[in-house]
Design a protein that fits this description.
The complex is a heterodimer. Chain A is mainly alpha-helical. Chain A has six helices and no strands. Chain A has one domain: nmb1532 protein domain like (Four Helix Bundle (Hemerythrin (Met), subunit A)). Chain B is mostly helical. Classes of the chains: A mainly alpha, B mainly alpha. At the A-B interface, helix 1, helix 2, helix 3, helix 4 and helix 5 of A face helix 2, helix 6 and helix 10 of B. Chain B: Keywords: Membrane, Transmembrane, Transmembrane helix. Chain B: This is Transmembrane protein. Chain A: InterPro entries: Hemerythrin-like.
């Protein structure tokens, strides 16, 4: 078993945050403070969150205007953006984080289970869009939006900063890999 | 190795829900009080009926929802788990509900015993909550302005209630206090130290989140809780020491902060990316417009010469109605319409264990009912404002409107609870049926539920 990497005070707090409403205990937390905070992963992934938000808004706008064809294409853009974002996390970022920290049942597990819920909502929204049922779509989209936003808050404030700290030495290979994964979704990744 | 996670620590649905369901009952009582007391209530800010009305709204309505919501958001926003949430919710809810009823009874009957019991219940209920929340928040680094805001608002609440307890004991002459001055310090801490700071701390997160607006400027989110606390403390000192000039200056600064928050929120709302405004956004907008109007009227009232004291008193009344019914109640109800359905959805979704997709949150309360309730609330607000100026004409219509608007709010929240119960049974049955047929069911098999191949 991979031993724990020493966690500092911030990370202990981050874990509490990720496990909102649940119990998180860490037995080897030390009180060292982060000396050189890096933001590359946080900035990069946060930009992609905003991009997904914009895509969702574009679908909503098209439906309100009654442009169902456009709504369909915009939805595909949104769906791909979101799913490739999840995939980039699940196949690149999370495994590296888990490997480094030895925490496969930690915050990444919570994020993965929220991804499952969001995939379900996405499917329900897609079905409603196919039926051209504006009310049904709005209901699923609204639920998905709140789910996404509270998920993003946890990632942007907690998990990504932890990744920045834990994976600082892997940035040179990690960022291009993430970028490649996100770009597969047909997006212009900055 | 110890398991890092256990999934059963989220506050149970009933913990925040009981606070949310009790709040409209107090606003209904406020409506009944208007009908019972008639136009005489508006004779002065200091009539027993007016004081009872104010506290039915602040302690009965606002405090209920705010404590219930804090119970829910502290773990999410601050990662602060409160110990034994179910027991805490039961005790605090019981104490503040009894306390609010006794307080209103105390004002109406001018009963020293009712005041003392109200002070006991409200003091202990709030102390228990603040102690518990403070314990959970202790040591959480305030990396975000929201967390600092929540901590400061708890301090503001403590000061408000402590002064309130002092006033309740002093009312029958047991203590020799300058009552009007302590009262004005008491309600300023309530409005700004507790109400505004909490509302802003929550708004910094939920306005951009629900309405898809740009974020509030970072400098403002950091500045607001601290400066509100500092200015309020200094103002209280100036007020207690009877220094009119510094007191007026500090009060003006507090007013500026409040108005800035309202203007910023309105400005952000205009940049919302959502295709159309929903009830929550309308409620926020009206709430912020009322707050701005109240700030303006307060300034005008302060600037009037002594001989126009009667007009100044009416303007202060209008400020009170605009802030309480137009500002706080509007925003609180607007947020309830997001929080309550999302909680229903989230708890149902967790019950389904990822195997059943819960009905979406727009199904929890019918949109048409929300719109109707919103119109009733705005009508009640308009009639209350009219009743301040023409009490003989508008007191009864305002009372009825307040009754109807909050009856509708209660109805909507109860509909959500009924929906939750009905779906809970349905989901349990679905899971039982699916498990007995093939062992491991999956009710969603749409292509988009699967991740695309890399």
């Amino acid at each position: 078993m991979i031993p724990y990497v020493e966690l500092d005070r911030n990370q202990t707090y981050y874990l509490m945050f990720i496990n909102a409403g649940r119990t998180a205990t860490l037995d080897n937390a030390s009180s060292q403070l982060m000396r050189f905070p890096m933001h590359e992963i946080t900035d990069f992934m946060t930009r992609d969150h905003r991009l997904c938000d914009d895509c969702l808004v574009a679908v909503e706008q098209a439906i309100v205007n009654g442009a169902w064809e456009l709504a369909g294409t915009e939805f595909i853009r949104f769906r791909d953006a979101l799913l490739y974002h999840f995939l980039a996390e699940e196949s690149v970022l999370f495994p590296r984080f888990e490997q480094r920290t030895g925490m496969s049942l930690g915050p990444t597990q919570v994020m993965r289970s929220e991804h499952v819920q969001m995939r379900q909502l996405l499917a329900a929204a897609e079905a409603a869009l196919a039926d051209r049922d504006a009310d049904e779509y709005a209901g699923h989209a609204e639920t998905l939006l709140i789910m996404m936003q509270q998920h993003n808050v946890k990632e942007e404030n907690v998990l990504y900063p932890m990744c920045d700290q834990q994976l600082a030495d892997q940035l040179l290979e990690l960022l291009p890999e993430l970028q490649k994964q996100l770009a597969t979704g047909g997006k212009v990744a900055a | 190795m110890q398991a890092l996670l256990s999934f059963d620590q989220a506050p149970p649905f009933g913990a925040p829900a009981r606070f949310f369901l009790t709040a409209p009952l107090f606003a209904i009582l406020a409506g009944l009080l208007l009908l019972w007391s008639g136009p005489g209530l508006f004779a002065s800010r200091w009539t027993p009926e007016a004081l009872a009305l104010t506290h039915l709204i602040t302690v009965g309505f606002m405090l209920q929802v705010m404590l219930g919501a804090m119970l829910q958001i502290l773990p999410v926003v601050a990662g602060a788990n409160m110990a034994r949430p179910r027991l805490l919710a039961t005790l605090v809810h019981l104490a503040i509900t009894l306390g609010a009823l006794l307080l209103a009874a105390g004002f109406l009957g001018l009963q020293p015993l009712a005041f003392r019991l109200a002070a006991l219940f409200l003091g202990s209920g709030v102390a228990l909550f603040v102690g518990s929340a403070g314990h959970a928040l202790y040591g959480v680094p305030p990396s975000r302005a929201t967390i600092r805001g929540l901590q400061i608002s708890l301090l503001g609440l403590s000061v408000t209630v402590a002064l309130g307890v002092l006033l309740a004991i002093a009312l029958d002459g047991a203590l020799d206090l300058p009552l009007p001055r302590v009262t004005s310090i008491h309600f300023s801490w309530g409005f700004v130290g507790w109400g505004l700071v909490l509302l802003a701390a929550v708004g910094f997160v939920v306005v951009p989140m629900f309405q898809m607006t740009p974020a509030y400027p970072a400098w403002f989110t950091h500045l607001l809780p601290w400066s509100a606390l500092a200015l309020l403390s200094l103002w209280s000192l100036a007020e207690a020491a009877d220094w009119p000039a510094p007191s007026a200056l500090l009060a003006g600064a507090l007013l500026l902060i409040t108005a800035t928050f309202a203007v910023l929120t309105l400005h952000l709302q205009r940049r919302s990316k959502r295709a159309r405004f929903d009830a929550t956004q309308h409620y926020w907008r009206v709430g912020m417009l009322c707050t701005l109007a109240a700030c303006t009227l307060w300034l005008v009232a302060r600037g009037l010469p002594e001989r126009m004291a009667a007009l100044a008193e009416r303007l202060e009344w209008l400020c009170g109605v605009l802030l309480l019914c137009g500002g706080f109640m509007s925003v609180i109800i607007g947020m309830l319409y997001k929080i309550f359905p999302f909680l229903v959805w989230l708890h149902l979704q967790n019950l389904g264990g990822g195997r059943v997709l819960a009905p979406n949150m727009n199904k929890v309360i019918a949109g048409q009912q929300i719109k109707r309730q919103m119109r009733a609330h705005f009508l009640a607000l308009a009639l209350l404002l009219a009743a301040v100026i023409w009490p003989e004409w508008f007191t009864y219509p305002a009372g009825i409107a307040l009754l109807v608007a909050n009856g509708a709010l209660l109805r909507n929240l109860l509909a959500a609870v009924a929906f939750y119960r009905q779906q809970r049974t349905k989901i349990a049955a679905l899971i039982a049926a699916a498990t007995s047929s093939d062992g491991k069911p999956s009710l969603t098999s749409h292509p988009a539920t699967k991740a695309p191949a890399p």
